Amino acid sequence: MHQRINRGLTAVSLAAAAALLLSACSSDSDTEDSASTAPSTAPSTEPSASAGASSEASDAFPVTLDTVMGDVTIDAQPQRIVTLGSHEHEYLYALGVAPIAVPVSWQGYDNGTGPWADADRIAAGAEPEVFEPGASAYDAEAIAAFDPDLIVATYPNHEMSPEEFDLLSGIAPVVTRPATGSDGNATVEWGVSLADELTLLAEATGTSDKATEVLADVDAEFAAVKEAHPDWAGKTTQVGGYYEGQAYVYAASDTRNQFLANLGLNVTSVEGTDAAWLQISAEKLDVLGDLDSVVWQVATDPTAKDSLEGLPLFPSLTSTEVGGNMWLTDSVLEGAYFANSPSAIKYSLDAFVPMLEAALDGDPATEVPVYSDAS
């Protein structure tokens, strides 16, 4: 029997959750299933602005941002923001900013986001319209219907083409991911750090002081866990799963691996993960052979755990021999872990610390708890 960490009741459709696996791993993937949330293209009749922002924020404008699509100038503090990706609105909520429209949640949640971000959303005074921004191409007509003065696509559902950028820029300034990260390197699709993304969005909305506070809080959360677990430093780990008959792991730059790296773990020891994800055939599973631990993301497929454990090489993995496998079976945690927003990180830390403590103690007899948001 696995231990189970319980916390509140939330039901999530597996069909909706499966959409994330595709959207996070392939630029040609479909976006969220809109069946659970009716799309709306009607513009809001009530203006919405950055909740709690000081009047001095307007002094930050005009501002020119260095994005992967080139320089983007924002002339005045935005009042009507539309987001196009899976987590940008959560970043805005953390800054006290209330977007007027956000994409439908891939997990079917009201207001376009999971329960981990609800407190930030309420504090920001956000009651956004939810809509389907488009799957393989953005629906410019639906976006324009909201009459936005800023469009945010720092973590989009697909790689934005120059043609799409030009089209949407005819509606409002479009903020994509930063051209370079704080490390001076070019950013990659789905690989921007929380700090770089939040800093860019703060510059775009005149909330840089708030961003400094938020990032200090997040850094303190990670630092406290690292200080309490110095033995984790340098331990090797990765985030993976099982999809369409093959195991896979995410790139080191993926938001989920960023979370683990911020705890002092080494997520770079698997070669070939320069792309968003790396598929691994059963006979090559030993590329994961030396990892101290693996977070197996299996919430979207109830059969994935059995499939992975049934692979011939699975018992020989170091993570199996030392009891380092962690099974992420809860859909709520899966969503928060992927989002990597300030509120999601706090939620995920509460869940992951007990799992990591058990998985990284080197004793295969230690039972690794299985987190659940269901009572």
List the main descriptive attributes of the protein structure presented here.
Rossmann fold; five-stranded mixed β-sheet; 375 residues; three-stranded parallel β-sheet; 31% helix
Structure, described:
This protein has 375 residues and is α/β, with parallel strands linked by helices. The protein folds into two domains: 36-216, Rossmann fold (3-Layer(aba) Sandwich); 229-371, 3-Layer(aba) Sandwich (Rossmann fold), CATH 3.40.50.1980. Helices cover 31% and strands 14% of the residues. The protein has twelve helices and 14 strands. It has helices at 14-25, 88-94, 118-124, 140-144, 162-169, 194-205, 208-228, 255-261, 304-309, 318-321, 331-339, 342-359, and strands at residues 4-5, 63-67, 70-74, 81-83, 101-103, 129-131, 150-152, 174-175, 237-243, 246-250, 277-280, 293-297, 325-328, 370-371. The protein has a five-stranded mixed beta sheet. Strand 2 (63-67) and strand 3 (70-74) form a beta hairpin. Helix 6 packs antiparallel against helix 7 and helix 7 runs parallel beside helix 12. The longest helix has 21 residues, at 208-228. The chain starts with a strand and ends with a strand.
